[in-house]
């Protein structure tokens, strides 16, 4: 395994890269300034300069140090919701209804673009953020990367159908993630709707609704007719209240968030929907996001309106990326452009090395198979 370059070592020990290279030379090693040295060489060189080398993992080396949360900065934030359920049970219809019924009067048009996350304002000016991730993939991909983005799952089950494989899958995902489930029994406008049957099947799948003595709130709805949606929102907010979901609302910390979705726009470049988790993203902030970096050039809400900053649980469209980030990447604001670039470069080097090692292994494997 290779670690730091002479350049990085020099920085760490407060000597020049030339000193390091010369030392390597005297030890019989020929290296260039940006070449990464092996562990033994680093140990030797460090000793020569009176240091003891201590190695940390790549994960640690490329992590961002996060300041601790001060209790006084922690405030209640809007809950982040993912709607899950079997195909055709009405997930999109529910989200569309919620979105369209909350278009503020005077605001031109609803939200037509698919951008992966929306904030809606319900009664008494309370906000709820919805993640609109295609299927369950993004949810699981983000979780696999350790990003916990969803606070509550709304499980949609069609009352004219049954608990289906993807219903079970959704229940399993939510339970594995420790995310509470609020049940929405949809399509109750249909004559053949049988909500009681659904509740029975759900109980068999380990989801017992409240009225039957369980812990899961349940609401009968029609996403098409708008029946029971306000009540569903109330139940979601009640669930959020019990959990006292808080976020760090300090204006002084380096903000961070999760990449929900990204696209490449011909004119504007990379546009990414970010769910802010901590602090406030502001125009001009330098940041890293996975292996890429940038500087926030513009922030927009879900209607494309320019905004100046975005805080905890707020989804925001961000311009200013150098490259496409991946869904589930953490975006972290850095203290300077230089810090952002240094960290992004370090991550890129490590990624390239991993790719190189992987491709070498593949080649060796195929050679081995041929022999
Ligand atoms: P998704 O696959 O879970 O996103 O489901 P969709 O929202 O695309 O809905 C699938 C079909 O069910 C569409 O034809 C909808 O119009 C219909 N649908 C959704 N909700 C309702 C409802 O409450 N009542 C009725 N009658 N039809 C619905
Ligand atoms: Mg859909």
From TrEMBL:
Residues 76-246 form the Tr-type G domain. It is found in: Cytoplasm. GTP binds at residues 85-92, 132-136, 186-189. Belongs to the TRAFAC class translation factor GTPase superfamily. Classic translation factor GTPase family. IF-2 subfamily. One of the essential components for the initiation of protein synthesis. Protects formylmethionyl-tRNA from spontaneous hydrolysis and promotes its binding to the 30S ribosomal subunits. Also involved in the hydrolysis of GTP during the formation of the 70S ribosomal complex. This is Translation initiation factor IF-2. The gene is infB. The chain holds residues 383 to 753 of 961 of the full protein.
């Amino acid at each position: 395994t290779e670690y730091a370059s002479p350049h990085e070592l020099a920085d760490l020990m407060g000597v020049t890269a030339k000193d390091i290279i010369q030392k390597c030379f005297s030890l019989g090693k020929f290296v260039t300034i940006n070449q990464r040295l092996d562990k033994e060489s680093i140990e030797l060189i460090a000793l020569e300069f009176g240091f003891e080398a201590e190695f940390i993992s790549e994960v640690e080396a490329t992590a961002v140090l996060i300041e601790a949360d001060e209790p006084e900065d922690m405030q209640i934030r809007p809950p982040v919701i993912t709607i899950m359920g079997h195909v055709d049970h009405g997930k999109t219809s529910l989200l569309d209804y919620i979105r369209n019924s909350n278009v503020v009067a005077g605001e031109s048009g609803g939200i037509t673009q698919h951008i992966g996350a929306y904030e809606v304002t319900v009664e008494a000016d309370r906000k709820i953020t919805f993640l609109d991730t295609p299927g369950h993939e993004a949810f699981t991909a983000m979780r696999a990367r350790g990003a916990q983005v969803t606070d509550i799952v709304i499980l949609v089950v069609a009352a004219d159908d049954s608990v289906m494989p993807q219903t079970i899958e959704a229940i399993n995902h939510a339970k594995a993630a420790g995310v509470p489930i609020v049940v929405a029994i949809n399509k109750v406008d249909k004559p053949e709707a049988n909500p009681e049957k659904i509740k029975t099947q759900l109980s068999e799948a380990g989801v017992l609704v409240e009225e039957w003595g369980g812990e899961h709130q349940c609401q009968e709805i029609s996403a098409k007719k708008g029946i029971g949606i306000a009540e569903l929102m109330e139940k979601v907010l009640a669930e959020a209240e019990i959990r006292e979901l808080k976020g760090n609302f300090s204006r002084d910390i380096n903000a961070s968030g999760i990449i929900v979705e990204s696209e490449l726009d011909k004119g504007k470049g990379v546009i990414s929907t970010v769910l802010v988790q901590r602090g406030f993203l502001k125009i001009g902030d330098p940041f890293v996001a996975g292996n890429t970096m940038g500087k926030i050039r513009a922030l927009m809400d879900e209607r494309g309106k320019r905004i100046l900053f975005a805080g905890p649980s707020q989804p925001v469209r961000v311009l200013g990326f150098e490259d496409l980030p991946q869904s589930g990447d953490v975006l972290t604001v850095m203290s300077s452009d230089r810090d952002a670039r240094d960290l992004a470069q370090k991550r890129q080097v490590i990624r390239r090395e991993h790719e190189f090692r992987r491709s070498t292994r593949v080649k060796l494997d195929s050679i081995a198979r041929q022999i």
